[in-house]
Design goal:
With 83 residues, the protein is an alpha+beta fold. It has a domain of 53 residues. A two-stranded parallel ribbon has the order 1-2. Helix 1 links the parallel strand 1 and strand 2. The longest helix has 13 residues. The chain is flat, with a radius of gyration of 14 Å.
Length: 83
């Protein structure tokens, strides 16, 4: 799963200020889930502002090498929606 710019493991966001572990992020976040990934959708929705969730039928851990066409298309569609 791809992560947003906000880090929950350290308790700080990218700006360096402290955040509560129960605080939901506001940064628009996308996740690309491939067949070998396990789904963490409930956790992701609770912690991040998930605006795009894509599950692919092919690809894997090295998606950029294995299925670059799928990954690039998904990234473009995510960022197009943020314009």
């Amino acid at each position: 799963m791809r992560r947003s710019a906000t880090s929950r493991s350290t308790g700080t966001n990218s700006g360096g200020s402290s955040t509560s572990k129960s605080e939901r992020g506001t940064v628009p976040t996308a996740a690309a889930v491939f067949p070998t990934d396990f789904s963490v959708r409930p956790l992701a929705d609770r912690v991040h502002n998930v605006v795009r969730w894509t599950e692919f039928g092919r690809g894997g851990h090295f998606a950029a090498l294995e299925t670059p066409d799928l990954l690039v298309t998904d990234l473009r569609e995510f960022f197009r929606g943020l314009r």
